[in-house]
Write a structure and sequence with these properties.
alpha/beta, 8-stranded parallel beta barrel, two-stranded antiparallel sheet, 11 helices, globular
């Protein structure tokens, strides 16, 4: 099919052990369900070890379609992770406004700044495209745009996990939410679905935490995780929902890891939030975190191919020329990390 892997893709746990782990953050909605399937397929073929999607049955089904296609055609099958939260979190929101309130003469800065192209002409926010970055909230000159929380309640998780059966779960947490965190783990355990990893995501920005207080919070989470016999993965969120596009964000996640690496509980550390193609430039290739998560940049790089496939009224998976270019683009982003072999 014209797409070849240039390196051996390590299994998830081996990749974490060698600092080579790469995760795709698919986003809360990323375009439509067809695009989710294609996006997951492209990055699976390129060699990511995990795909992180919203805890939504339709989204999970679309992601699995892409992952199964990659497994059947290329032999690569990343873990499927779902993200949830133990409280209010910027990762679990959508933008919303009434387009009838917009003046005709408005230059529509919200539409121009939206990285997901979720704000369409003479329309409001397309919830299927919005992944909650929040850029439009401050862009509207009249302050018409509001955020709408999309998080689930704790009692929903047992049924959801029983139906989805993910390979891994990530819980976004913040200060003072240890009881909620433990209640969610109890729900997850009651679903009787084995997880390869339970990831915990938090950072400093937006959480009113210092380095030391973040470490204390994560040690509390570690106590809950080990009590239930789960394997942790610590995600340090350098600059949450930044869009991950600007070169200036590339240092933030590395800087947070350097501050936190000796303070965290046992377990592999993954960096996220502001990560992009420049992040690798700020790390010594012989040391570093166990892995990295790419979000906004990973999606933006593949979006042109997804859009062209839609114009052709076909799946990107069924367009050999576009698929080959998309996979090459994905590999250019992830290979500097996926080919690392560092003993941690």
């Amino acid at each position: 099919m014209g797409v070849n892997n240039q390196h051996k893709v390590l299994s998830g746990n081996n990749a974490l052990a060698h600092g080579a782990w790469v995760k795709l953050i698919c986003g809360a909605s990323n375009q439509d369900l067809l695009s989710i399937s294609d996006l997951c397929a492209v990055y699976a073929v390129a060699g990511v070890h995990c795909v992180d999607v919203a805890a939504d049955i339709a989204v999970v089904r679309a992601a699995r379609k892409g992952l199964d296609w990659a497994k059947n055609n290329y032999g690569n099958r990343p873990w499927l992770m779902i993200s949830i939260s133990d409280g209010k979190d910027v990762h679990f929101r959508k933008a919303s406004f009434n387009p009838k309130l917009c003046p005709k003469e408005c230059p529509r800065p919200c539409e121009k700044i939206c990285p997901a192209e979720a704000i369409e002409e003479n329309q409001g926010v397309n919830a299927n495209k919005c992944y909650g970055c929040g850029r439009c909230l401050t862009a509207c000159p009249l302050g018409l745009i509001r955020e709408k929380e999309t998080n689930l309640v704790i009692g929903d998780y047992k049924h959801l996990i029983s139906n989805i059966k993910p390979d891994a779960v990530e819980i976004h947490t913040s200060s003072g939410r240890s009881k909620n965190f433990e209640a969610i783990i109890a729900e997850l355990i009651s679903a009787e679905v084995p997880f390869r990893r339970l990831a915990v995501s938090c950072g400093l920005e937006g959480h009113n935490l210092t380095v030391n207080s973040l470490a204390r919070e994560l040690w509390q989470r570690h106590s809950s995780i080990t009590r239930f016999g789960l394997n942790p993965l610590w995600q340090l969120d350098g600059r949450p929902m930044s869009g991950d596009l600007g070169k200036g964000t590339s240092r933030v996640s590395i800087a947070l890891w350097e501050k936190m690496k000796h303070l965290l509980p046992p377990g592999p550390i993954q960096i996220a939030g502001g990560t992009n193609s420049h992040t690798i430039e700020h790390i010594n290739n012989n040391v570093g975190p166990s892995g990295i998560a790419f979000g906004g940049m990973a999606r933006a790089l593949i979006q042109p191919y997804l859009s062209q496939a839609q114009e052709k009224k076909m799946n990107l998976r069924d367009w050999p020329e576009g698929l080959e270019l998309a996979v090459k683009t994905a590999k250019d982003l992830i290979n500097p990390w996926a080919t690392r072999r560092v003993s941690l």
